[in-house]
Write a structure and sequence with these properties.
Layout lengths: L1 H10 L3 H19 L1 H54 L3 H21 L4 E6 L12 E3 L10 H5 L6 E8 L12 E11 L6 E10 L1 H10 L6 E5 L5 E4 L10 H9 L4 E4 L2 E7 L5 E7 H49 L25 H59 L3 H20 L4 E3 H19 L3 E7 L7 E3 L4 H11 L7 E9 L3 E8 L6 H13 L8 H10 L8 E6 L5 E8 L12
Parallel strand pairs: 1-2, 12-14
Antiparallel strand pairs: 1-5, 3-4, 4-5, 6-7, 6-10, 8-9, 9-10, 11-13, 14-15, 15-17, 16-17
Helix pairs in contact: 2-8, 3-4, 3-6, 3-8, 8-9, 9-10, 9-14, 10-11
Keywords: ATP-binding, Cell membrane, Kinase, Membrane, Nucleotide-binding, Phosphoprotein, Transferase, Transmembrane, Transmembrane helix, Two-component regulatory system
GO molecular function: ATP binding; phosphorelay sensor kinase activity
Protein name: Histidine kinase
Length: about 600
């Protein structure tokens, strides 16, 4: 007996044997005791997981549906600009051009965003009201199921409604089949007369929503559908299955929006969509029980089958696995970026075939490669960061040239229209000299001397348009013209001084440009005696300067220059502005003194 006990103790003197014995005792004995409890606990856990998985799928589906609705809203916003231009057209030619642009945009949006159709409704006397493809008279709005209260007070937001049997004209689609659609409508009323000026409707085939529902909930035991805010069903993951919902039931579900609502052995998950409709998912308790039974059975069988396999795996690989992890952990712990990495070649046997490497072997090799490449990659990352900053600068500067050229060409066209061909020719000549000068200076940084020459050419061009109403003077401290400045820094401010400075109360504008030395900086001021800037607009401009934003709709030139000149590589400068209404405006530009070393240093 003593010999048997001695042999048993000898066997269990190894850690692996102790681990195996402890695992068996802690697994097999409690398994028989808590067998009954396991079922109820597993049922609860499995039920929660099934509901959680269903809600997760539901949330992803809601995001997908809302993104689709957002696409339609964005299309409606884009069409708003076209409609504004169309209704503001003064002449038949302008109206015809706006109609063509709107029709092209509608066709483009329809193809790009997979829209079923779009209709634009115009007043009866409008040029495009009888077009019959995309444009129709306002009286045709009566054909659609728009809510009455929306027609009476449409507001500024979209009106969503469900429309059955929407048909596309033959010239747009040869397939003449009616579709049920989700319709997004925008209506504009005259604020005084309350008469509808125009309206447009974007139609989205509800089969898109049905497809989303079928893909997310392929199991027909789960019912997922979309209804309007009035309870009218429009899409279902099983189109043949009827939807049993009334206004009272919808009201109860809406109160529990976003949560699981249990009623009559069915779990409801209700979400209000972006357009005010509801997406409802019904998960019957019977479905949960069937899936939980399968899950519990599967877990028990898997545990019983995997237990002996687990024991064998622990015995076979625990020692080797622990050794590899310990070696790799030590190497990672001692790793330093500025010191050579520890060699971990002992992790992998030299005679081992690379095709037989396991994940830990590969992780060790990857760690070694990471050690070798991190130092060199740090410099590459720094170079990429510098390149990114330079590309951003070049993009901002490239936007100034088209903006400037557009304004000058507009002035030339105006002179030609007024018959002032000599002035137009002289402007073209000066414009040629202007661009010869700017193109000859290929760097992003040029001398203040060259920047002032560009400014003079621009002022000469503008003076041709304004005769004796424009004058200027330039005052520089000695030697300051040799420092470098970002190209096209002064022109946008000069343009604003002329464009916004001239008014009935300030018919003549005089511009004074000065450049003086600061503390290791250059300070350039542009002052005029023009119309000045109101307090509200001045606050907007100062906000643009402080936040360093470039808004393509407002203050583009000022924001562009401010963004470029504030770059640390191009002067680390800043711009301030002072102005009083009808007392002129003063722009102060301060940046670091930068000297020209060679031609390459000026190119980004």
């Amino acid at each position: 007996m003593k010999k048997i006990l001695k042999n048993i103790k000898r066997c269990f003197s190894h850690f692996q044997a102790k681990l195996l014995a402890a695992f068996l005792l802690c697994t097999l004995i409690p398994l028989g005791i808590i067998g009954g409890i396991s079922y109820s606990v597993s049922y609860g856990i499995a039920r929660d997981r099934i509901l959680s998985a269903s809600m997760s799928s539901d949330e992803q589906l809601n995001m997908q549906i809302n993104e689709r609705l957002e696409q339609v809203e964005n299309v409606a916003d884009s069409l708003q600009y076209d409609m504004y231009a169309l209704m503001q057209a003064d002449t038949p030619m302008d109206s015809l051009s706006s109609l063509t642009d709107t029709r092209n945009d509608v066709s483009l949006f329809k193809a790009t965003f997979r829209l079923f159709y779009a209709s634009v409704f115009l007043p009866q006397d409008h040029l495009g009201a009888g077009e019959g493809l995309y444009f129709f008279p306002l009286t045709d709005l009566e054909k659609y199921a728009l809510p009455v209260e929306s027609l009476e007070n449409p507001g500024t937001s979209s009106i969503w409604f469900y429309q059955e049997k929407v048909t596309v004209p033959v010239m747009i689609s040869s397939v003449q089949n009616s579709r049920s659609c989700a319709a997004c409508c925008r209506i504009l009323k005259d604020t005084e007369t309350q008469v509808i000026e125009y309206a447009y409707i974007i139609f989205l085939d509800v089969s898109d929503f049905s497809q989303y529902l079928e893909e997310s909930f392929s199991d027909k035991n789960i019912s997922s559908y979309i209804v309007t805010d009035q309870g009218q069903p429009i899409a279902h993951n099983s189109p043949d299955q009827p939807v049993d919902i009334d206004q009272e039931k919808l009201s109860d579900l809406a109160k529990e929006e976003g949560t699981l609502y249990q009623k009559d052995q069915v779990s409801y998950h209700t979400v209000r969509l972006q357009n005010g409709w509801y997406h409802i998912t019904e998960i019957p308790d019977s479905y949960i029980r069937n899936n939980v039974y399968i899950l519990v059975k599967t877990i028990l069988i898997t545990l019983l089958c995997s237990l002996p396999l687990t024991i064998l795996v622990i015995i076979a690989i625990s020692r080797s696995l622990t050794r590899k992890i310990r070696i790799l952990s030590t190497a990672m712990k001692e790793f330093k970026l500025d010191a050579p990495g520890k060699e971990i070649q002992e992790l992998i046997s030299p005679a081992k075939d690379p095709d037989t490497y396991d994940e830990i072997d590969k992780l060790g090799l990857t760690f070694q490669k990471m050690q070798a490449s991190l130092s060199s990659n740090m410099q590459s990352i720094l170079d990429l960061s510098l390149t990114e900053e330079r590309l951003k600068y070049q993009l901002l500067q490239s936007q100034i040239n088209p903006h400037f050229l557009y304004n000058i060409l507009g002035s030339i066209q105006t002179c030609q229209s007024l018959g002032k061909l000599d002035i137009a020719n002289e402007m073209i000549t000066n414009l040629t000299r202007f661009y010869r000068m700017t193109l000859r200076k290929s760097g992003d940084l040029i001398t203040i001397r060259d920047e002032l020459e560009i400014a003079r050419l621009y002022l000469k061009i503008e003076k041709l348009c304004h005769n004796d109403n424009l004058s200027w003077e330039i005052d520089l401290e000695d030697g300051i013209e040799n420092f470098l400045i970002c190209k096209f820094t002064l022109q946008p401010f000069l343009e604003n001084s002329i464009l916004h400075g001239l008014s009935q109360r300030t018919p003549q504008v005089h511009i004074v440009i000065t450049a003086v030395y600061g503390d290791d900086t250059v300070i350039i001021t542009i002052a005029d005696n023009g119309a000045g800037i109101g307090e509200k607009q001045l606050a907007e401009i100062r906000h643009t300067l402080d936040s360093k934003i470039v808004d393509y709709e407002k203050h583009f030139g000022i924001g562009n220059v401010n963004k470029r000149i504030s770059n640390p590589y191009f002067g680390n400068g800043h711009i301030s502005i002072d102005s009083r209404l009808y007392h002129g405006t003063k722009i102060t530009i301060e940046f670091n003194q930068m000297e020209e070393e060679n031609e390459e240093s000026n190119d980004c």
